Amino acid sequence: MRQEATCSLVLTQDAQHRKNQPPLAEEDDDRDHTDDAMPPPCSILLRQEEGEATAAAAGEGLLVPPLNFAMVDHGVYRSGFPDISNLPFVESLRLRSVLCLCPEPYPEANQEFLRAHGIRLFQFGIDGSKIRYPPPTGTAGYYYGGISTFGPGGTGVFYPGAWVAEPFVNIPEDRIREALKVVLDVANHPVLIHCKRGKHRTGCVVGCLRKLQRWCLTSIFDEYQRFAAAKARVSDLRFMELFDISSLKHLPASFSC
């Protein structure tokens, strides 16, 4: 009897409580209520730890890698041009050398950083600018990969209504070769290879290095495409395909194959 009275009292109190509550808004019956559930204690702890780690990183300063940064091989990295915000990250790589493929004078702030950390700068300037002008009269063309290219005096790509000189088409093979010699010399490692955006000029140097590593062309082109994306250039692919590696010394044992 006492048990029934207790249950009746609880039910009465619960009904009174619901009566005093404001009406609930109508909800979709298909709504997923899992997001409304209280997270388990372990989830709360993980979020708390993540928040503490983020706060600590913010206090110490985040390391921001340069555009298109990636590891090529042991002791060899690639990227776009490092700016001031990237220098703490570059410092963490403990580089011995930087290989720049841009023809412009190296920024003074970057030079000061290299001097302060005893990093040697190698610069093999390769022009990557775009030039637009009408097609030369009487110029013969040939097809490569479904794109019409023209000469003499430079290679270009024919588009409807315009003739465009494709950037980085007259690739100076001697400079690529000299750049590779720097990369192959383990005394220069760790080394960072970079151009402006880490796509075309850097992609060609890395692609030629992959030929030395006996990569197949499909894999070389796939790696190039991942960085160049929609900006991939037929002339770069053609250069890497035809590049002769026979004059370069054998691959150092430190490189993985």
TrEMBL record:
**Catalytic activities:** 1,5-bis(diphospho)-1D-myo-inositol 2,3,4,6-tetrakisphosphate + H2O = 1-diphospho-1D-myo-inositol 2,3,4,5,6-pentakisphosphate + phosphate + 2 H(+); 3,5-bis(diphospho)-1D-myo-inositol 1,2,4,6-tetrakisphosphate + H2O = 3-diphospho-1D-myo-inositol 1,2,4,5,6-pentakisphosphate + phosphate + 2 H(+); 6-diphospho-1D-myo-inositol pentakisphosphate + H2O = 1D-myo-inositol hexakisphosphate + phosphate + H(+); 5-diphospho-1D-myo-inositol 1,2,3,4,6-pentakisphosphate + H2O = 1D-myo-inositol hexakisphosphate + phosphate + H(+)
Q: Is Repeat set as a keyword in this record?
A: no
Q: Which EC main class describes this enzyme?
A: hydrolase
Domain (Tyrosine-protein phosphatase) ranges: 68-257
Q: Which GO terms describe its molecular function?
A: diphosphoinositol-polyphosphate diphosphatase activity; phosphatase activity
- Entries under InterPro entries matching the protein: PFA-DSPs, Prot-tyrosine_phosphatase-like, Siw14-like, Tyr_Pase_AS, TYR_PHOSPHATASE_DUAL_dom
Q: Name one GO cellular component term.
A: cytoplasm
Q: Which UniProt keywords apply?
A: Hydrolase
UniProt keyword annotation of Hydrolase present: yes
The entry sums up its family as follows: Belongs to the protein-tyrosine phosphatase family. Atypical dual-specificity phosphatase Siw14-like subfamily.
Mind telling me what this protein is named? Answer: diphosphoinositol-polyphosphate diphosphatase
